[in-house]
Amino acid sequence: MSAMNKFRFEKREKQSALRTLIITAVSVLLALVCCGILIFSVGSKPLKVYETMLTQVFLSPTGIKNMLRSSLPLMFCGLGVALTFKMNLNNIGAEGQYAAGVIAGGAFVLFGPDIEGVPGMIITALCCFLGGAIWALICAIPKAYWGVNESITTLMMNYIALMILAYLCLGPWKMPRQNTGMTERIPRSMDIPEIMIGDIQISVGVFIGIIVAALIYCAYKYTTGGYQLTVISKSPKSAQYAGISIKKNILMVMSLSGGLAGLAGFMQYAGVAHRIVENMPNNAGYTAIVIAYLSRLNPFTVVVVSILFGGLQNSTAYVQSLGVPSQIATMMQGVIMIFVIAGDFFQRYRLVIAKEGKA
Known about the structure:
By secondary structure, the chain is mostly helical. It has a domain at 72-213 and 245-303. The chain contains 13 helices and 4 strands. Helix 4 (94-111) packs antiparallel against helix 5, helix 5 (117-146) runs antiparallel to helix 6 (150-170) and helix 11 (284-294) crosses helix 12 (299-321). The longest helix has 30 residues, at 117-146. It is globular.
């Protein structure tokens, strides 16, 4: 008889916070080692690069301010995507819903009534929300009534919204005497305010994101809609037997998800760029998919992971200033994402080695 090893993965029944922390830390460390090899291969010093990233992006007041600003669209897109994933719906269209929200909000600011200040800000935010919600609803209706795959429709709608946005910024909405596609600046009275906490300037949008995350969490825990969403995600047949309308929930969840992605456009429009540019979404909707996955659909974790991703994105400019090629700087983001996602797999599953006897 000779022993033969057989490998398989088993899902962990319990996932301790300590294991999660250790595996995440090890994943990030391995990613940094891998990136360090790439940085060294192009003639730069990895430790110097990492020191600059840490001090300039994650520890300095200016770096933290910019990190929080950059996290805003990721945060709202991530919350929206996580909401659909919670119901086992694949909303791959946050990028297009973001763009649709920006278009709707921009249309009000550029061509609507002359309403400025807080009322104008609220109406603009509502327009952005409705723009994203309607764009998502276009895909939700075929899914709810005819079973059309929402992954394909939401993905296709991205390109349509992005093309419309580019056309408007390069054409009828373009600011005169500009070589790049951008609109006029939003009125300053409609800018999302920032407050000082110590030496750090923090956008009010971050607090709005935390409030939205809290509302979603409470909806999951304490409302009938949250309960129905959980039941549908676990067993659609059981939900139907219990009299829960799956069609209604698909329409509602997809619309809310698209609306949150549209609010991401408002945050970028009124809180960061203060004008609309042709490439405004900048892959925030796609990054939100990774953020939602890593956050395990927990809205509070989405906020934290979005802030970290915002800092990671901003670190690219500082890395390039040290002579690291832009391709390497961009690839660093991808390497860290891959290692963290791989680590998350080992948080959920464990490797089992079984021995089998063989004659």
